[in-house]
Design brief:
β4 and β5 form a beta hairpin. The longest helix is centred in the last third of the chain and has 20 residues. The protein has two domains: about 70 residues, Winged helix-like DNA-binding domain superfamily/Winged helix DNA-binding domain (Arc Repressor Mutant, subunit A); about 160 residues, Beta-Lactamase. The chain is built from ten helices and nine strands. The model has no long low-confidence stretch (mean pLDDT about 90). The radius of gyration is 20 Å and the shape is globular. It has about 250 residues and is of the alpha+beta class. α6 runs antiparallel to α10 and α7 packs across α9. The strands form two sheets. It has a six-stranded antiparallel beta sheet with strand order 6-5-4-9-8-7, sandwiched between helices. A three-stranded antiparallel beta sheet has the order 1-3-2.
């Protein structure tokens, strides 16, 4: 009985791994999915058939490519809109986008990564596109600094001690940046993670004073200069403050 339970749990985990492949891709082939999850095609094919049968995936007609099915959206619709920051804070994000003219994103921490849970794209012709669901490292970027600087100190220690710490990144420099973030109340980054991109981010605390997310404004570095970000800081901080008052 125990072996059967382990097999069932493993199958569930594999099926969930397959669904997670679609966080950054709209459709994938059988081969691409098998490569991403590290399983044989025959195993993946059986799991895909089950997911397709339950409506979580749809196979494109005449191909071996799959995309998310309507059942996923049905589950998402069941989320409480009153408690979901990605939905609740969207109007404030749109307002900030209209004021500053750049892309606005909302990030939360998950382990030693940050996840973009919502984004409002800039309306300018040249802009930085921010896909929702993207996972990014916690050791670099304006939003990462905010989530670490104002979060649990244990996360900072875990991050600095991580075996995945990249070569060439200075731990002492990050600690200095975190202290500066705490003093200023916000963080900035210029081409730290992506060439030609810059960002400014501020913490969103709920009414109980707990850090919930980081709101960030990002755009081309030649437009979002250090001087421009300093000018924009009051608007970003004000928006973050209003957001926090909306969260329990």
């Amino acid at each position: 009985m125990e072996d059967n339970t382990k097999l069932t749990v493993r199958a569930v985990e594999r099926a969930l791994d397959i669904l997670l492949c679609f966080t950054d891709s709209s459709d994938l082939s059988l081969t691409e999915i098998a490569t991403r999850v590290g399983l044989h095609k025959s195993t993946v094919h059986r799991l895909l058939a089950s997911l397709e049968g339950k409506g979580f995936l749809v196979r494109n007609a005449g191909t071996d490519r799959y995309r998310l099915g309507l059942r996923v959206w049905e589950l998402a619709a069941g989320m409480s809109q009153t408690d979901d920051p990605a939905i609740l804070l969207l109007p404030e994000m749109e307002r900030l986008r209209d004021v500053l003219g750049e892309t606005v994103s909302l990030y939360v921490r998950d382990g030693l990564e940050r996840i973009r849970i919502q984004a409002v794209q800039s309306l300018q012709a040249i802009r930085r596109v921010a896909p929702v669901g993207a996972r990014l490292p916690l050791y670099v970027g304006a939003s990462s600094k905010v989530l670490v600087a104002f979060g649990d100190p244990a996360v900072t220690q875990e991050l600095l001690a991580s075996p995945d710490w990249p070569e060439g990144w200075d731990r002492a420099q990050l600690l200095q940046q975190l202290r500066e973030t705490q003093l200023l109340g916000y963080a900035t980054s210029v081409e730290e993670r992506e060439a030609g991109a810059a960002a400014i981010a501020a913490p969103v605390f709920n009414r109980a004073g707990k850090l919930v997310a980081a709101v960030a404004v990002s755009g081309p570095a030649n437009r979002l200069t250090p001087e421009r970000m300093q000018e924009a800081a009051p608007d970003v901080l004000e928006t973050a403050g209003r957001m926090g008052k909306m969260l329990k």
